[in-house]
Amino acid sequence: MEMVTIVPRQRLDGLDLLGGHIPPLNPPYRTQLPLWLALLLKRQHRANVIPPPWLSRESLDSILKDEISTASFSPPPMPPVPSSTTVPTSPPFLASATADASQDTLPYHWLELGEMLLEAASDDIPEPDTTRRLMRDLREVRMAKMRAGVEVLEGGREVKMNGVGGMEVAEGRAFIAGVVDGLRRIGAAKEQARREREAEERENGVGGADEDDDEMGL
After folding, report:
1. Which of 2, 92, 116, 137 has a beta carbon 3.0–4.6 Å from 108's, enabling a disulfide?
2. pLDDT tens per residue, the chain (218 residues)?
3. Which residue, among 93, 106, 17, has the nearest Cα to 54 in the 3D structure?
């Protein structure tokens, strides 16, 4: 469950939800709420959203430059070191939309989170138009990398997709699945052709007992 940092604009009582207890909200103290509740309070003008550090012009511009300069995807956020009382977590289960999220990396749901926060809380995000443009540029650059990775697959090589986001996986699933299916069919056709060639050679006496005897000097 994605959490978002907000600043309440009015006092609100606590709530007992299926996901856990929501403490009372007292302005101007920050608190973390589930994404859906934070957006609801924002639309009702009861709270302001504190955008995650990566959703800023400076951070997105830096990440975009790194994406353009390298063939690999920008690395995902580093998971916190687990303690004896916590369970190890990894993407997509990291806190990625709170005010203390990583500034230099894109979370697993960066595209969905960014679009939702820009749609519902653009007045809380500095330079929202520039932020939208940078997100659009990032999306295009990263999708181009995914298409380039598919071309590598067609050449029979491996490609690393570390750092790819959830929405990007969903968008690229169709053409990636098509390429993988095509490679599977090509491999099956080659295997069938090999078997037919071997069967024909056996019928013609090629590679049979006579050849084995010649190799043994008989």
Report:
1. 92
2. 688 999 999 999 988 888 788 889 999 999 999 999 999 999 999 999 999 999 999 999 999 999 999 888 888 777 767 666 666 665 556 678 899 888 888 988 899 999 999 999 999 999 999 999 999 999 999 988 887 766 655 555 566 677 888 888 777 776 666 666 766 777 777 788 888 888 888 888 755 445 445 544 54
3. 106
